Amino acid sequence: MNELILLCAGAAADTTDDTAGARAGLPVPPLPGLTALLARGRIASDRSLGGDPVAELPEDAWLRERLSIPAAVSVQALECVIHDVPMPCWRLTPCQVHLGMDHAMLIDPGQLRLTADESAALAAAAAPAFEAMGLTLRAPCPEVWFASGPPWPLTTAAWTLASGRNISAYEPRGARARDWRRLLTEVQMLWYEHPVNLAREQAGQRPVNALWLDGFATEAPPPGSGLMVSASPVLTGAARAAGWDTRHAPGAAQALAPAFDATSRPIVIDLPWWRAPRRLGDAPAWQQAWQSFEDWLRVGQAPLARAADQRRLRVVLTGERRLLTLDSAPASRWRFWERLDVRSAINGGAPASAAGRASPPRGPVAGARAASTAGRDAPRQRR
C-alpha cells in the first residue's frame, strides 16, 4: 500500500476509560506543524493494550503486526540480523539490577555506558557457563549480546518494558525458568569481583551484575516489501528480517524526498526523540522531543506535504499501553469543513469536528512516565 508512516514511539499520552483512575500527566504542547499536516485527518484507531502486566510495548506490538512477526519471536531479538548472528538465537542485555529492601529494580541499561573492552571481558568470563548449557555467547556490541542455540520454553519481556520497574512481573517464566535463574546466578557470581566491575566501582560507575533475557529469534517474518528509515538497531533488524530495505537514520525530510516519489511501497520513518525521555521519566526532555519533531516538520514541510498529497499519511503514536493512529488520505482533502484537533486527539482523544471546533477530550491526559504511577500495570519505583 502506498503509505507514508511517521512512527512516534513514546509520544502519546495515556488515558484510561475510568476517568477517576486515569493518571494525571503532561499535556502535549501546541503542534502547529503536525496540525497543518493532518488538518483534514482523522483518528484511524485508538486502543489500549491489555494484560497485567502488558506483554510488550505498544511500538513493538505495532511493529509485530506491521511486519507479521510470529508471536513466539521477540521483536528485540531480530536485531541479530544486523549483527550477522544466525537464528535461532537469544538476545541478552548486560545490565544492573538494583536490590532494594523488598524489590529488585532494573536500572536503564543505557546508563551503564559499557565500553567495548569491558563488554568483551565480561562476555569472556560468562561464556563457559553458557557453553555448559549448550549455548555460544556472542557480544557484537557492548549493549547487545546474543547466545546461539535453541530457545527454551520461556515467556520473556524486553528490557525496554522492565526498565525502571520492579522486575518481579517481568522475569522469564515457563518450564525452564529455574534453569535460566541458575545460569544467571552463575554469571552473577563470576562477575561479582570481576576486574571490570571492581574498576567501574572505583571510578564511581555502576557495576554490571546481571543479564536481561529479552527473548528469542527463531525464524524470520514472511517476506514483505517496504522502506524502514530508522537509527534504531531493533527496528532496522526487524525490517531487514522481513525483507524491507532500510536507511540508517531519519535525517531531514528533504533528503528523503526522492524516496517518497520513487516507490509505491510503504515507507516508515522512525522518529526517536520520545523513547528515552519517556522510559527515564524525564519530563523536560519529553517536552523538548515534541519541539524537535516540530522543527523536523517545519524544515521538511514542502516534501512532506507533497508526499501527503500522493500517499496515505499515517502518524503512529504510542504510550505506556496506548496505540494511536492518525491518518490523512488524499481523498479527504476536499472535506474543508472538517478539521482534526490533533493536540486533543494525542492528549486523550477528540475526533474530527466541524468547522475546526474540537470536541472535549474523553478524559484527563497522562503524559511522560515521570508524572505518576497510579493505574500502571506494575508499580514503578525510582531511587
Through-space gap between termini: 47 Å
Assess the beta-strand content as a share of residues.
15-25%
Largest sheet: 7 strands, mixed
Q: How helical, in percent, are the residues?
A: 25-40%
In DSSP terms (H or I, runs of 4 or more residues), the helix count works out at: 12
Determine the mean pLDDT: 84
Number of domains: 2
Order of helices and strands: EHEHEEHEEEHEHHEEHEHEHHHEEEHE
Low-confidence stretches: 17-24, 349-383
Can you tell me the overall shape? globular
Which sequence of strands runs across the widest sheet?
Answer: 2-14-13-1-12-10-11
The Rg value, from CA coordinates, equals 22 Å
Number of strands: 16
Structural class: alpha/beta
Explain what you see.
With 383 residues, the chain is α/β, with parallel strands linked by helices. It folds into 2 domains: 3-68 and 223-354; 76-217, no CATH class. 31% of the residues lie in helices and 21% in strands. The protein is built from 12 helices and 16 strands. The chain has helices at residues 32-37, 58-67, 116-131, 159-162, 177-192, 195-202, 233-241, 253-262, 275-280, 283-299, 301-310, 342-347, and strands spanning 3-8, 42-48, 89-99, 104-107, 136-141, 144-148, 154-155, 173-174, 210-217, 227-229, 245-247, 267-270, 312-318, 322-328, 338-339, 353-354. A 7-stranded mixed β-sheet has the order 2-14-13-1-12-10-11. Strands 3, 4, 5, 6 and 9 form a 5-stranded antiparallel β-sheet that branches. It has a two-stranded antiparallel ribbon with strand order 7-8. A hairpin with a 4-residue loop joins strand 3 (89-99) and strand 4 (104-107). Helix 3 (116-131) packs across helix 5. Residues 17-24 and 349-383 have low confidence and may be disordered.
